[in-house]
């Protein structure tokens, strides 16, 4: 596994010299930000990219650069997917299954962040329902399309350090709603899903990991006021080790680099069931805080199995 990449590495640097011709990749959330850049870099290196988005007209316009920069047989095909509706998720999965074409990588990139309290079409708290349950159903329904040697990359966040999942009250029915606690629960769920998916599938050569892209200015933060962002950055800086550099935003190509490193470059055994950031496998954090590393609860295999079981109960489907 290459150790030459880090926090400032870009997608083009990570994939330099990588030939993805013949590879087929599903990327969710290709209508903005990291999803567009992820799809662009993959198609530019020859991959056939299936891009999923809720608003296809928006995605079509937003991904013009992806098609323009596709090379060596690279391409982009869009499919409709609303992760906040399990009916939409199942339609998308059914369409992919009917096509019968295998995948080498799934990058579960789409998500929402720190939004006001709300519910999905199916009544789940918006962030948990969209970020975790939507992807949980989609990925598990199309798991048979993953070839041996393929990978699942779940986009998590340092935000997982805000909160562990709450299996007794996932929808805030018995506790007061807080935007970042809900976000933290959903991002912890993304890691735990990767941990358990990896355990279940590694014997067949399919591995799963979770990644933190870093702090990036994208549409994801549209619910955050400048005052909230300023407070968040101050909190991050206050939690970092003495003498460490202050927080700085990554560019979008830098933010998407860890996803592509984990999907196409890193050693599968090294990342399987782990949490990655800045193009390397993160250490398990020994203290609370938002700066770096994975909280132990996000990598707990028993917690991962419990979340899987709870998720199956919530969506009324067994995998």
Portion of residues in beta strands equals: 5-15%
User: At the third CATH level, what is the topology name?
Assistant: Rossmann fold
User: How does CATH name the architecture?
Assistant: 3-Layer(aba) Sandwich
Approximate helicity band:
40-55%
Count of beta strands: 8
Gyration radius from CA atoms, angstroms: 18 Å
Question: Looking across the biggest beta sheet, what order are the strands in?
Answer: 3-2-1-4-5-6-7-8
CATH superfamily: NAD(P)-binding Rossmann-like Domain
Q: Class, according to the CATH hierarchy? A: Alpha Beta
User: What structural class results from the helix and strand content?
Assistant: alpha/beta
Element order: H for helix, E for strand: HEHEHHEHEHEHEHHHHEEH
The backbone outline, from C-alpha atoms, is globular
Number of domain modules: 1
The average pLDDT score comes to 92
In DSSP terms (H or I, runs of 4 or more residues), the helix count works out at 12
Oligomer: single chain
Query: Termini separation (Å)?
Result: 32 Å
Unreliable residue stretches: none
Short description:
40% of the residues lie in helices and 14% in strands. The protein has helices spanning 11-14, 33-44, 56-62, 64-69, 86-99, 126-141, 179-201, 226-239, 252-255, 257-265, 268-271, 301-315; strands spanning 24-28, 48-53, 75-80, 103-108, 146-155, 207-212, 275-277, 280-281. Helix 5 runs parallel beside helix 6.
Question: Could you explain how this protein is built, in words?
Answer:
The protein is of the alpha/beta class. It has one domain (11-315): NAD(P)-binding Rossmann-like Domain (Rossmann fold). It has twelve helices and eight strands. The chain has helices at residues 11-14, 33-44, 56-62, 64-69, 86-99, 126-141, 179-201, 226-239, 252-255, 257-265, 268-271, 301-315; strands at 24-28, 48-53, 75-80, 103-108, 146-155, 207-212, 275-277, 280-281. It has an eight-stranded mixed sheet, sandwiched between helices. β1 (24-28), α2 and β2 form a beta-alpha-beta unit. α5 (86-99) runs parallel beside α6 and α7 (179-201) packs across α12 (301-315). The longest helix is centred in the middle third of the chain and has 23 residues, at 179-201. The chain is globular. It starts with 10 loop residues before the first helix and ends with a helix. The relative contact order is 0.15.
């Amino acid at each position: 596994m290459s150790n030459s990449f880090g926090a400032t590495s870009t997608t083009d640097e990570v994939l330099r010299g990588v030939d993805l011709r013949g590879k087929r990749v599903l990327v969710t959330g290709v209508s903005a930000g990291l999803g567009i850049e992820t799809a662009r870099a993959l198609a530019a290196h020859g991959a056939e990219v299936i891009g999923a988005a809720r608003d296809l007209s928006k995605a079509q316009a937003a991904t013009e650069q992806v098609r323009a920069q596709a090379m060596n047989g690279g391409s982009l095909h869009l499919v409709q997917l609303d992760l906040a509706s399990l009916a939409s998720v199942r339609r998308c999965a059914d369409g992919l299954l009917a096509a019968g074409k295998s995948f080498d990588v799934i990058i579960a990139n789409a998500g929402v962040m720190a939004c006001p309290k709300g519910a999905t079409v199916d009544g789940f708290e918006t962030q948990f329902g969209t970020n975790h349950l939507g992807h949980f159903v989609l990925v598990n329904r199309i798991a048979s399309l993953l070839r041996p040697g393929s990978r699942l990359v779940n986009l998590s966040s340092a935000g997982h350090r805000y909160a562990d999942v709450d299996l007794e009250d996932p929808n805030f029915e018995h506790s007061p709603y807080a935007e970042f606690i809900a976000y933290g629960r959903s991002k912890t769920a993304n890691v735990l899903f990767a941990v358990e998916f990896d355990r279940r599938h590694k014997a067949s050569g399919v591995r799963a990991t979770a990644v933190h892209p870093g702090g990036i200015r994208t549409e994801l933060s549209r619910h955050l006021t400048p005052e909230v962002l300023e407070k968040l950055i101050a909190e991050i800086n206050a939690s970092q080790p003495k003498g460490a550099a202050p927080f700085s935003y990554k560019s979008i190509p830098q933010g998407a680099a860890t996803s592509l490193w984990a999907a196409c470059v890193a050693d599968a055994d090294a990342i399987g069931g782990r949490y990655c950031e800045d193009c390397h496998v993160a250490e398990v954090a020994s203290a609370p805080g938002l700066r770096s590393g994975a909280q132990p609860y996000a990598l707990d295999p028993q917690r991962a199995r419990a979340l899987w079981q709870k998720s199956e109960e919530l969506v009324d489907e067994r995998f």
